Every structure is written in structure tokens, then in C-alpha cells.
Protein 1
Amino acid sequence: MDTTLRDGEQTSGVSFSPSEKLTIAQVLLTEVKVDRIEIASARVSEGELAAVKAITKWAKANGFLNRVEVLTFVDGDVSVQWMLQAGAKVMNLLTKGSLNHLTHQLKKKPAEHFAEVGAVIALARKKGLECNIYLEDWSNGMRHSRDYVYQYLDFLQSQPVKRVMLPDTLGVLTPGEVTEYISEIVQRYPTLRFDFHAHNDYDLGTANVLEGVKAGAHGIHLTINGMGERAGNAPLASAIAVINDFLPGVKTAVSEKSLYSASKLVETFSGIRIPANKPVVGDNVFTQTAGIHADGDKKNKLYFSDLMPERFGRQRLYALGKTSGKANIENNLQQLGIQLSDANLKKVTQRIIELGDKKEVVTQADLPYIISDILDSSRIEEKVKIENYVLTHSKNLHPSVTLRISVEGELFEEHSQGDGQYDAFMNALKKVYRKKKQELPALTDYSVHIPPGGKSDALCETIITWTFKNKEFKTRGLDSDQTVSAIKATQKMLNLI
Ligand SMILES: CC(C)C(=O)C(=O)O
């Protein structure tokens, strides 16, 4: 059962609009193909009622209505009436699974609580609703008031309930405890069906789900991207991968291929960014960075596991950076369909290492720009060399530059200002060339390209068109700083005239 729309929405700062809820519900049931979804808590707000109405209307028309569940409360007939108004059929009644909660929050005795729960179940059944029962704080109940839990389950055995839901409300269980508690309960109550609901406070959510299923839980509760209260719930994508890979006899209906796009959809709607290293769905989890891994992938797939990206509609990538090495670069070139001579491959590798020193990772999208830059430079002999420069940029003052440049072995130093940093640089350069009594080409066009990716440290390519002695030519510069990329393009021009 996916509870992104109920427990997942309890992530701090998240509120889905009714239309977002409807879209996520549709994706979960028709694309991801989870068996059941929990979509809201009853009585929350008018917006929530509108969302539940929209989902139940769509679900009814498409035969999904009894797979759509709503969290309700022990409140006489109030939640039941809300369910009827919302057109929902399955209620997940929140009750107390530990004596501690019962005594200190509800201030009730077990018999009193059971009677009230029984009354809500009877009313709900009379109105045609199906009932599942949550035993909130069940994990602490098992640790500290197991007699109470068993007294309660004895009572539930005689009730018309479909499932008993066992939440590790505070995410405190170890995998060993999950095994012990769930196997004990499943054996003791063979006529009841149990769901296990894990939280991730110790980062044990997925491990606990694995143990819960092994121990005999009939259902598990998960959320997309592990959204949920505090540290969240067990993440759907990880749990499905773990079940498929480590529990061969157990089958789920979930489509692995749609997990990534569902994750992205929820990322967009919730505004909660997925960490790049989040298993299965994170941006970097199928990217090899170390050159040795890329090399091993080519040799009998030494660094592959069953967790192949293609299962999830994703692709293995090879990061480019100072640790990536030749094999990573070759893999990227292969993916782009580019062939390079050994000499040029060496130059590209060297350039990537240099860039990697400045910026953590060079992306595959940067690669064609780097290659064309290198192929361009290799045609040029360096008679003019920009030795040093200082560029300033400050509020309400003109940008300025100090430039040291050697032109055919002669060293010049000039200062200048301009409307922008590059303009200041060009003004200093013009002073040098005036001294040398040499003409400079006219800049006739200047264009900047940022390879896709949208990072503030992305590489920037500047292409400048020059006109000189009635001829037009272009030079290209590449750097993560825009002014520096223009200066590099200019240095190439100086070496071409
Ligand atoms: C509200 C309840 C059912 C819950 O999510 C939990 O106990 O973890």
C-alpha cells in the first residue's frame, strides 16, 4: 500500500493540491500498479475533501474504488459521515497500539477503547464501508505492553475487519525485533491479515520492511521517495528492489520501470528534492565515477550487480572528472557516438582532469564542447600568450583589468577599465596592440552557450566572430567562468592573425 498521499504528505512543508493528489493517485494505480493507496486523513480540510472526492470519483469510474483508503478516527460517527460524503469505501481506523498512548493520550482503559473502536467498526460496516485498523505505536506496545497488544488483537479477531496495520510509529525497531514481533503475531492470529508500516528514523525502514515480509506480513506500507513524518517512511522504490532481489518467492504487482518517473513527479509536486545518492531514484546512483570501475565494467562487467539501471528505465553513466580516467571518457564517447585518435583522446583526458580539479564533475553534455575546443586549439601555434590578469567587478565602480601578455616574446603590462570585465580586458589589449602598432580584428559577434544541466558552475562556451582584412573567422573559448571563456577565445584569435 502506498501512503504518499497521506503519511507522505505529512512531510514537513508539503501540501499537495487536489489536482496534484489526483494525478499522483492515477499514476500510482495505473502506472506504478501498487495494490492500494492511502490518500488522506478524514476531516482535515475542505481542500482535502475536494481531493478525496475527485480521486474516489475517478477510482469508481475505473474500478479502483476499493483500493483507495482514508485514515479515519475513533470519533463516533464523524469520520464515517466524512467518508460517505467523500465517496470513499475503505477506512483505516487510527486506534491505540500501546498502553502508553492509550493511558496518556486518550486517558482511557483498554475495555473502554475496544468498545469505542467496536462501535465505529459496526457503524462503518452498516454503512457499507470496509475497515482496516491501525494500532498506533504498536512497536512500543510490543516492547513495553505486549499483553495489551494481545488483548487488543484477541478482541479484533472477532471484529469484521479486513486488515490490522502494525506501525513502527517512531521508527525505532531493529530488523531483529521486526522478525520476532511479526512472526509471533502472524502465528498467534492466523485468521487476521497484517500490514507492516515502517518509519525511517534510524535509516532502517527498508531493512525492516524486508524482515517484515520475511516474517509473514501480508502487506507493507511505503511512500514515493520515502516521504513522511520526520525521517519519512520506507521508500517504495528501494523496498520493491529489495523484495524483488532478495525474496524470490514473493511477488508484487509494482512496475519497476515506472518508479523513476513517479519519483520525479512527486519530487516536482512536493518541492522536496531527491538526494542524488538516494538508491534507485537518485540522479547519481547509476553513475560510475572512478576510472577503475568504468574499466571493470568493460571487462566482464566486474562492477555490475543485479541492481541494473535498465530495470528502472534508467541508464548507467560514467562521470567525467579528475578521477574518471580514460575508460570513463571512452564510455562517454561511445555513448555519444564520437571516435577520437589516441593523441586527441589523451588531450581530452588531460583537459578533463584539469577541469575536474576546478569543478567537481564534467558532464557528458560538456564533452562535445571540450572536444571541439581541443581540436580547435591543436591547429593553433602559440605566439601570443596571456600570462596574467586581474579582473575586478564591484558595485558602482567600472570593472577594471591589469593584463600581462607576451606577444612574439615581448612582454607588456597594461591597465584599463570598461563597461564590463571583458570590455575592460579588450581595452587593455587594444593599448598593447597600439604600442605594437598592430591592428586588431573587429569583434562582430559574440555568443555564449551553456551546455544543458543548469548548474551555476556549468561550463560556458563563448564563440566570438571577428572580422580582419575583410575576412571573417570565429574562435571558441571554454571555461566555467564566462569572462574567462571569452578571454580564451580572444587568445586564440591573437594567435591566428
Ligand atoms: C498515523 C499513523 C497510522 C502512522 O502513520 C504511524 O503510526 O506511523
Note: Residues 7, 94, 134, 136, 167, 169, 197, 199 surround 3-methyl-2-oxobutanoic acid (CB under 6 Å).
Protein 2
Amino acid sequence: GRFGEYGGRYAPESLVEACREVDEAFRDAWADPGFRGALARLLAVHAGRPTPLTPADRLSEALGVRLCLKREDLTHTGSHKINNVLGQALLATRMGRRRLIAETGAGQHGVATATAAALLGLEATVFMGERDIERQALNVFRMRMLGAEVVPVTAGSRTLKDATSEAMRHWVGATGDSHYCIGSVVGPDPYPWMVREFQRIIGDEARAQCAAELRTGVPDYVVACVGGGSNAAGTFAGFADTRALLVGVEAEGGAGASRGRLGVMHGCRSLFLQDDDGQITQAHSIAAGLDYPGVGPEHAHLRDLGRARYVTVSDEEAAAAAVRLARTEGIVPALESAHALAWVIRAAGDGELPAGSTVLMTLSGRGDKDVSTLKELL
Ligand SMILES: C[C@@H](c1c[nH]c2ccccc12)[C@H](N)C(=O)O
């Protein structure tokens, strides 16, 4: 398939048919200048694109590299997720669906889905683990404020993994009037490819901005954090045909690409954290948005091809990186994005990143949501 031995459509029969419809509709839409134009307009007037490429001059000076930040934290709702949900909401409308179904753990994708649904006049039903509802009360309030129905999930670990399973189970009975709006480059085909295509606006914009900003036109390194992997997949897509070295940075406690093993979950064959009996184990990270115990099939494939490297950083390194960016550049990053910066700081320090290297790093989200977590660490 598209991603070598990974990917596929390992879903119940009724979902296979629903996924085939999504695949057909997306191919048709993605080839239609009318759809592309409508999406570009939404991304401009509602999401605030293009996002800046910010040279981090003071931090670059301290690290001895040339670091530029792709500012997805400056989009509406504060992360790259809006790129995906606007695309899927527009596609759902084109398919004549009147409701979006979504899963969320940290709540970010839930808020983004609720935002897109409100904007396009669709209903939104978001499945969220009961444990996460307690931990992410602010995002639950936001979703309800935006008119979404938040459905508590009490199965299993009551977190993102189970919320995703529950959302897909619900879709089985609602394929006629609902579109499943997944939050990352995971799930049954065509989702990993479709979500990467919606997120490639990050990489395509950054490619043009680097051509103008960097003497060499293409950065030596392209770095992004990886939970399910959607902001990284979108960023990498803009540089796949260049000699830029691609680095995906995972949380030590949620390292699907770095420590996962071949398995099938949520309709997709990829790398997942699992015990010797094949039971998927729980991800642990200071960053709620890296809470997925696996990684998208495209990243598994890029790892096997040697086209991208996947590394992990600790909670402590990520928290320290967040504080350092705040105090040297005046930007408070999402803890998820701080994982990418933590690797840049480590690698610049131990020489893995040669002095003078040019580095493009996607700042996938803003850190307002993480202030209480960071407060305990300061
Ligand atoms: C990253 C995002 C997310 C939402 N749905 C996902 C599915 C697989 C992997 C990640 C996600 C986040 N965990 C959230 O709950 O919003």
C-alpha cells in the first residue's frame, strides 16, 4: 500500500464501505480547484494562514545553529489541528453529512472539531475518556460552548485510545449522516493519507518561506514532535523531495515510532506500544497531546525507509525547553511542541547538530493550556 507494509483498512465491514466513500469523495475533492479554493479561503479568513516562519535569533545565538520556527501556535484555536478539521468539515459538507464525530484525549482535537462544525453549520459529537474529561475540564467547557456534544467514555483506560475506539464504534451506526473526523494521521485508509494532505499546508508554506529566508533555501534539518504524528507528517511532506534530514521527536512514555512494535489498532497496521501478549499499553507524557500509544503508518514507513529519524526526549527536557523558549524568544510553546525543541537543544549541545546547521522546527501549538503544568515545574 501507500506506506509499505503499514496502513490498510482493518475495520469492521460497515466501516470499510464508509471509508471507501470517504476515499472516493476525498480524491474527487482534492482534484477539484473549487474545493481547494474554498479550503484555502477558510484557512486564510478563519484560521489566519499563512503562519509566520519566525527566526529564533536569541536562541539560535545561544545554541550555535540557525533555528526558524513554523508558527502553528498562531492559528485560530492555537494549534495545527485547525488545518485538518477545516478540510474534513468541508469534505463532510460536500458528502452531504450533517454531523462530525470525533475522538479526543487532550481535548485539542475536540475543540478544533467543534470549532469547524460551528463554522460550517454541522453538529459535532466528541468522544472523550472520562479520565480526560476530569483532567481537561477547560477544553470540555470550550467544546460545549462551541455547541458540541461531549460523550464520556468509561471503557478501558478511559483515555484517548478508548475514546477513538468508541468514536469508530458509534460511526458504524451513523455512516449515513455523519462523517468521522479523526484527529491525526492514524486510523483506516484513507485517513492517514488524507489528514497528511490537509496538514501539508504547514510544509508547503514552510518550504516557500525557507526558500526566501535561508541562504541555502532548504534547511539542513526539519524537526517536529510526534504524537499520532500529524503536524510532523504535514511538515515533512513539504521537504520529502529535498536532502533535509527529517527528525520526529516523541515523548519517552509515548514513543510509538521509537519503541512500538507492529500491530493493528483503530483500523490501521502500524507501530504500537504493546506488551508481550499484544495488549496495547498506556502512553504516559507530560504533554497530553502526545497521549497516543502508537504512531501513524506513514512515520513507521519513513522510519523503515531511513528517510526520517525518530528520537525521544524526557518530560524534564521538554519542560525545560518550554521555559527556555519563553524566556529567550517570548513564546510559550505547547508542551507537545516543546519536545521538538528539547531535541534541538540536546543535539546542539552534544554536537549531533553541527554548529551553523539550519533547522526548521514546527511549533505545533501554543502553551496557554499548559501553564498550570509548567507552574509546578518552575
Ligand atoms: C493529538 C490529538 C489526537 C486526537 N485524536 C488522535 C488520534 C491519534 C493520535 C493523536 C490524536 C490529541 N491527543 C487530542 O486528544 O486532541
Note: The mean pLDDT is 96.
